[in-house]
Amino acid sequence: MIVVDTNIISYFYISGERSNQAEQLLIADPHWNAPTLWRSEFRNVLSQYLRKEILTFDEILLIIQQAEKLLTDNEFEIPSAQIMQLVNSSNCSAYDCEFVALAQYLNVPLITADKKILREFPNIAKSLDAYFA
Predict the structure, then answer these.
(1) What residue segments make up the domains of the chain, in order of their start?
(2) Which superfamily does 2-132 belong to?
(3) What's the pLDDT tens digit per position in 61-97?
(4) Which of 33, 55, 32, 30 is closest to 43 using CA atoms?
(5) What is the pTM assigned to this prediction?
């Protein structure tokens, strides 16, 4: 079981240089968890692909449907006090701290490509490369 951030979810569903690693991650650990915030962040990522006409509207709806299915029953609301405590002790955004707080709550690693999260929370955050090392 792991927590994944929106970057990892995006790598899995949007073809790119890290897509293969994201696919390998799902094979290695198919139990992905995320705070409910991932939905809004993911929609925002996809909106950029829609506006740049890289993906069609129908492709985006299919991707959203697949991602929501993957994370069904694995989404969590995190108490604000827990998030703000992490914000207070780091330079990360409240958005990023939601993922960290969930990983701490579940006592599992957070897989991310976010360099600031990796730097600020080295005990719980792992990159894709570190996960496979």
Answers:
(1) 2-132
(2) 5'-nuclease (3.40.50.1010)
(3) 999 999 999 999 999 999 999 999 999 999 999 999 9
(4) 55
(5) 0.95
